[in-house]
Amino acid sequence: MRAAAPGMRLTGITTVIDDSPVLHRLGLDVPAGEITVVMGPSGAGKTTVVRHLTGLLEPDRGTVEIGGRDVWGSGPDGLREIRNGMGVLLGGSSLFDSSLFASLTAYENLDYVLKHHGFGEAEREQRAMAMLHDLALDGVASSLPDAMPAHARRRLGLARALVADRPALILDDIDVCLDAAHSPRILAALAGWRERTQGTLLLTTHNIRLARELGDHLAILCNGRIITTGSAAELLNGIDSNEDFDHRFRVSDFLGPPRMADILADRERDRESRRGLQMTIDPMMVRAAIIGIVVVTLVVMTLTLAHLI
Ligand SMILES: Nc1ncnc2c1ncn2[C@@H]1O[C@H](COP(=O)(O)OP(=O)(O)OP(=O)(O)O)[C@@H](O)[C@H]1O
Predict the structure, then answer these.
(1) pTM of the full predicted structure?
(2) 3-state class of 9 per DSSP?
(3) Could you tell me the strand order of the sheet in which 86-89 lies?
(4) Which of 64, 124, 259, 264 could staple 114 via S-S, CB 3.0–4.6 A?
(5) How far apart are CA 154 and CA 56, in angstroms?
(6) Which stretches of the chain score pLDDT less than 70?
(7) pLDDT at residue 94, as a whole number
(8) How far is the CA of 51 from the centre of ligand 1 (A)?
(9) Could you tell me if 65 and 52 are in contact, meaning their C-beta atoms sit under 8 angstroms apart?
(10) Transmembrane helix: present as a keyword of the record (predicted)?
């Protein structure tokens, strides 16, 4: 039987690390069975949100819920159960970040996860081999993670998160995997996971195209707060570059003083839109509006005078 996809919710999250505020009153809803993409500039707090959701870092204030369960109020056993229900890929490309066992080969790393989730031997072999193939890792099945190139190690981390078809998936900064040669396979593997589990996926990325193609929902995180949420397709419609992204979401407003280049670019855009507006005003319409105002004023004055007399 397929496990139900959990919703995720962060409420009023405030986090201070080394006396520096990182998140402040952050709220985020991740609907069950859908894909939510979190975007925002470097240092905005995306990884910190992931660490709260995955039970790695307790916030100073606020609550984190997964499937209605309080992640930080469930005790060690509860936390373990919640963690068992999710596949996780942490940011960064080091061995530690990818949650891989250094002493196990690529194949054994996947087999370990599958055994932990109670799969029988035949299904373990079938699933591990299929996942290695899907993510172009056949050639390194017998290699230890340390001996692999960083991009392959990263894909193995993703394979580990996907292989047991858990109903929740949290992927921090998968951009590292998304080189031109491998991104179609990665997107296909994610689509396969989604089809099989109908699960909930939260991912963080800087990749606008990926967010638009994959995301149902988009949340923009800036300076430790969610500043915008909505449909990923609608919010990212027509955005092709980081400059477009910054302009639409006014990201630079949240990062200290604005840059002169942005101000000059805004002025130019205003000038252009004024020019566009002037061209769309029809002189006949202006004349008709003035005549209408004069007629209405005369009628009102006549009625007022008649009333006074
Ligand atoms: N362990 C830590 N010690 C000190 N500061 C930290 C630590 N972890 C995070 N921070 C600080 O918290 C802020 C948010 O970091 P975080 O990694 O969550 O941002 P991010 O949005 O994921 O960035 P990126 O897109 O570059 O991965 C940054 O200013 C960072 O320096």
Answers:
(1) 0.80
(2) strand
(3) 86-89, 168-172, 200-204, 35-39, 217-222, 225-231
(4) 124
(5) 20
(6) 1, 92-98, 176-178, 254-270, 277-283, 286, 309
(7) 59
(8) 11
(9) no
(10) yes
